[in-house]
Amino acid sequence: MINNNLICDLETGVCGVVSDNDMELIDFNPPSKKVDFYYVTDPICSHCWAIEPTLRRFLKQYGQYLNFKTVMGGLLEKWHGGPVDPANGIYGPTDVAGHWREVGAHYRMPIDGSSMIDNPVQSSFPPSRVYKIIQKHHGEEKAFEYLRRVREYLFVFNQNIGEASVLIEIVNAMGLNGEAIIKEANEKTGHDLLNEDFMLTRNLGARGFPTIIMVNEEKKGVKLVGGRPFKNYLDGLTQVLGENPTPKQLPSLSALLEEEKLLFAKEIEVMYDVEKSNLQAFVKNELASTDYEVKEFLGESYFSIKEQ
Fold first, then answer.
1. Which helix (DSSP H) or strand (DSSP E) does residue 17 occupy?
2. Residue 123 Cα distances to 120, 226, 259, 270, angstroms
3. Are 162 and 124 in contact (CB under 8 A)?
4. What is the CA radius of gyration of the chain?
5. Using CA atoms, how far apart are residues 88 and 91, in angstroms rounded to an integer?
6. Contact, 170 vs 146, CB < 8 A?
7. Parallel, antiparallel, or unpaired: how do β-strands 66-72 and 35-41 relate?
8. Rounded distance, CA 60 to CA 225, Å?
9. What is the rounded CA–CA span in Å between residue 159 and residue 46?
10. Model confidence over 181-210: pLDDT tens digits?
11. What pLDDT digit, counting tens, does each position of 107-156 carry?
């Protein structure tokens, strides 16, 4: 006899039997409450790279409650011979490499850093202006994708993201017109948009990166500075909403990797609550071996879509 309770899963492509208990009540209404979510950051901020696993999971599960906006904070206008970050012993670009290595190793989001010795970024303003132009013409989501790509180029692949040719390459690879976007970023529009973000950063009271600020309709909010556990993000959202938010279902690993293109082991572990010792088994169970490849970088595994 043919079983009528069959389904082909849209994400995995696998067909199977549906349980008799798989009837669920769904609600298509958007959340009645939303909060303004400001992520103050900079393309060359190592601690912002370190929080990517936690921030991504939070956005995937609770993004429906957020009016999300990334704000460029202006970490480095230029090297000037004096102290740039004396608390971390940074007076020039050569001091950055060791600090980045330490941050990457501590959070298990590795950073090479040797580019800051061989061909250092002279200012974080050029890639920040490109962010603003993409945000203006293509929206927050596409701009956020760009931010991830420039950090991969800088922290993993040792490319100077202050150079126009590198920025054009990154933007073109995203399916956008790199030459036109970088040209506009270097004009008055790019400078004006970036200065607007700098003013917003000051008005928000953000003095370091990353800073996350959540504000409700009553203009009351919470500020989270630096790397924080996932629970802090959730507690902050609960506090400003005045109620317990309902999480969305997490995307499958195959869908997430298709979207992100590259994920470090720590990012998968945080997203799916997987222990480091169980990661390989989890990935093998979730992905077909023909769909991905795994490589190592500074002792950490990362997974990417296999090129056909």
1. strand 15-17
2. 9, 22, 29, 32
3. yes
4. 21
5. 9
6. yes
7. parallel
8. 20
9. 15
10. 999 999 999 999 999 999 999 999 999 999
11. 999 999 999 999 999 999 999 999 999 999 999 999 999 999 999 999 99
